[in-house]
Write a structure and sequence with these properties.
This protein is α/β, with parallel strands linked by helices. It contains 14 helices and 15 strands. The strands form four sheets. Strands 3-8-7-6-4-5 form a six-stranded mixed β-sheet. Helix 1 packs antiparallel against helix 7, helix 5 runs parallel beside helix 6 and helix 8 packs parallel to helix 13.
Amino acid sequence: MKEFTLKYGCNPHQQPARIYAPQGELPLTILNGRPGYINFLDALNAWQLTSEIKAACGLPAAASFKHVSPAGAACGLELSETLRRMYFVAPEAEISPLAAAYIRARGADRMSSFGDWIALSDVCDVPTAQIIAHEVSDGIIAPGYEEEALAILKNKRKGNYNIVAIDEEYQPPEMETKEVFGICFEQMRNHLLIDRYLLKNVVTEKKDIPAEAERDLLISLITLKYTQSNSVCYAKDGQTIGVGAGQQSRIHCTRLAGDKADLWHLRQHPYVLDLPFREDLPKPVRDNAIDVYLSRNPEDVLGVNVWADFFTERPKALLESEKAEFLSQFRDVSLGSDAFFPFDDNIARAARSGVGYIAQPGGSIRDEDVIEACNKRGMVMVFTGSRLFHH
């Protein structure tokens, strides 16, 4: 296939639209559905991300993409009982490493992942397809599909679920181009290898980076490589837990991602795990109810006139003081930034979300202030020397 005609571009009025191979054939096979312009942007970025996480961590990887940025990314570590409950995984469900990777990626920020595009580093197996079958998703890209898994996925969205296979041996040209307002841009593609050697320049007094933190720093940096900039990413236990994408201010990235990381941790609070949801409540409505329950306006789901719309009995509110106490126990979160921190306020905000390890390019005129802020908090910081802007 040399080209594929799209229904429309970014918006319905942008017609005609297509993807095509300037030379040779497209490295894609459309197995079901009719993916759109944004679908393919998500798919191709997400595929690169999962491939690089697998190469860096040696485990199957998955990503959940929305609007050309990852809502979550993860490698296929085993799920704890708490994570199974938090991610609405049935106790009897069979979970392969690849399925665990997608469950984690989707669970990083379930509100943002609603209607996601999925990328898998490995051939989609049946356990993964069975998980995807019960989530609201636009489509999937993977290097292949088991026969039964493909049949399961083809039943989604009344038979119109978008399923794309990619040639995992495909290598793009060194130079890439794009056109904006009739003007062509050209640059060498970002082939920066993100591995543990990028983490050697530790600039803080505390130097030790455990293997788990090293893995999480790599996941955060690879995720940032395919996140719209400015961006900051918090990671823990082999997955992202908060991505702050596309902000004009670095501190706003850090705050946004930190707030998402806090929500991820709070979803593990016993009050949340034991919320008495009505059995007929769809998972997206549950996700939204949890989000509101943990917000500063919990009365929107706990109020006298509304709680019965969500719960079988009225839950107890989680007080701000109880949230703070619960969050205070979490440590050793890893944080990556796609560019340097210009002020130490980013470090103060990161510390509030349990960050113990930071990877950033360095190069600010205030680097010493930022290093000192880390030293005061006993944090480890690495200067990678490599910026990761993505647009």
